[in-house]
Write a structure and sequence with these properties.
The chain is built from ten helices and 25 strands. The chain is an alpha+beta fold.
Length: 502
């Protein structure tokens, strides 16, 4: 069996919630039903607020449903860098908040009796190259200074030698959907709601705020939390301060005696992440990596092929059970943005830029956002403030701005294929063409029918490119993704690609 589906979605039941078919009024509207939305809504309802969680598609089937589900405060090599960028006090806040998230997950599992395959284990960041040994040593020193459960290792439980590793004890593995689905199911009632199939197209801050959906119905609320991986409105310009990245994942069988004890990720490129997961009466390995900037990366299928080849060669993995891909946004200063969307926004909040470490950062976000909405003091707020300025990250900001400008202007000037060539597009393929001066994205489905839509991203006008692995149109500037027929898959775009005649 080789299913093109997330392992977590394929091995858990999907709770169902009604669509939004009438106007609703609550204390807090939460846009997005991933880990941030679920955790924020849980804490807000505990605090006595009525909430409405509004999901564009199905709950827990977005980025949260496509994670590797490592519950750890070991985020590759980050703490030495954070000390240099922010100082030791703020680096310690990052460490303490992510360690706190591990405890929050364990506490919720115990209090609510959640059966989510929660397992204590150790996490390791390792290198097989001499070039990174000094960086590993520096990370161990930095992490220990910050009070983290860090140790230095010159060997780990992998079937190949490593040069050095930093390890964190007492970290967790779990099944994210089995953890979060019961929390979402507990939200409805007493004036609170969870809605599916309700795509938000506009958010107006005011007294009250108004959240408008494509179906024509509105949620009014005192406060709004935007928890959509990247905000679907442009306030705060987060699309310019975080880089979109596609990553690839496999669930593969491996002989039981070769299952490594722990969670692992290497330093350097290509990245390879490893953890185990129960699957019926056996154990599989969850493997991830081979990432690239969204909308780029060449033949996307080759990333899976390389990941699979590595797993077979170095880990002794055999058959592929599931394959999927995911999208992450990397904050340019490596710290997520969690809090008020802009300096003047007193009722509009967001969380984004988790840099592929959304399980602990998502819990941190849920806790912090709930505290901000309820005016509860939280020591983490200043570190994660979305409106912070970090001068040491300005070179990254300039680099990203240059990249986006080059794609925005250069792709418009680039010559496409002749207008009569769309007929040559093979079944399952897609390409962008010049048609009467217009950039048109053309896909041929498996039945042979052609589908043509505008190739201009509805967010800020960059030209999309074809993703052959997911059969989607992906924006190389800010990471918006659209189906083969133009429907929005992921923001920041909120409007579909317009149909075109060819």
């Amino acid at each position: 069996m080789d299913r093109h589906e997330s392992f977590w979605i394929g091995t858990s039941d999907s709770p169902s919630f009604p669509t939004l078919d009438h106007d609703v009024q609550v204390d807090v509207a939460v846009v997005g039903a991933g880990i941030v939305g679920a955790m924020a809504a849980t804490f807000l309802k505990q605090a006595g607020k009525t909430v409405a969680v509004i999901e564009a598609a199905r709950v827990l089937q977005g980025v949260t449903g496509h994670t590797t589900a490592k519950v750890t405060s070991l985020h590759t090599l980050i703490y030495d860098d954070l000390i240099n960028r922010f100082g030791e006090d703020k680096a310690r806040l990052y460490a303490e908040s992510n360690q706190a998230a591990i405890g929050i997950i364990a506490q919720l599992c115990e209090e609510r009796g959640l059966e989510c395959e929660l397992t204590e284990t150790s996490a390791y960041t390792y290198t097989v190259k001499d070039d990174y040994v000094a960086k590993i040593e520096q990370e161990v020193t930095a992490a220990q200074r910050l009070g983290l459960p860090a140790g230095y290792h010159d060997e780990v439980a992998l079937p190949y030698p490593v040069k050095a590793a930093v390890g964190f004890a007492k970290q967790l593995e779990f099944h994210p959907r089995k953890f979060l689905a019961p929390l979402l199911s507990a939200i409805p009632g007493d004036g609170s709601h969870v809605f599916e199939g309700a795509r938000v197209i506009d958010i107006e801050e005011g007294s009250p705020c108004r959240v408008s959906t494509r179906g024509g119905h509105t949620v009014t609320a005192d406060d709004v939390v935007v928890a959509t991986n990247i905000p679907i409105i442009n306030k705060g310009l987060f699309f310019a301060r975080a880089e979109p990245s596609r990553g690839y994942a496999l669930a593969m069988d491996v002989p039981e005696e070769r299952v490594p004890d722990g969670m692992f990720i290497n330093v350097g490129a290509p990245t390879h992440s490893v953890r185990r997961a129960p699957f019926g009466d056996r154990t599989v390995l969850i493997l991830a990596g081979e990432g690239h900037h969204t909308g780029e990366g060449g033949n996307h299928r080759e990333h899976w092929d390389r990941l699979e080849a590595w797993a077979r060669k170095d880990l002794g993995a055999t058959e592929v059970a599931y394959r999927w891909s995911t999208q992450d946004y990397y904050s340019l200063d490596r710290v997520p943005f969690i809090g008020r969307m802009t300096p003047g926004a007193s009722h509009l909040y967001t969380a984004t830029g988790f840099s592929a470490w959304g399980m602990t950062n998502g819990v941190v976000a849920g806790r912090l956002l709930a505290d901000l909405v309820t005016d509860t003091p939280n020591a983490w707020a200043e570190l994660y403030d979305p409106n912070r300025i970090n001068v040491k990250s300005l070179p990254s900001f300039v680099r990203k701005g240059g990249h986006d400008a080059k794609r925005l202007v250069g792709d418009r000037l680039k010559s496409g294929f002749d207008a009569d060539q769309p007929n040559a597009v093979a079944a399952g393929a897609g390409a962008v063409f010049d048609v009467n001066g217009d950039k048109v994205a053309v896909h041929r489905d498996d039945e042979g029918a052609l589908h043509a839509v505008s190739a201009t991203c509805t967010h800020l006008g960059c030209i999309v490119s074809w993703n052959d692995a997911e059969r989607s149109w992906d924006c190389p500037c800010h990471g918006s993704r659209f189906s083969a027929t133009g429907a929005v898959l992921q923001g920041p775009a909120a409007t579909p690609l317009e149909p075109r005649e060819i």
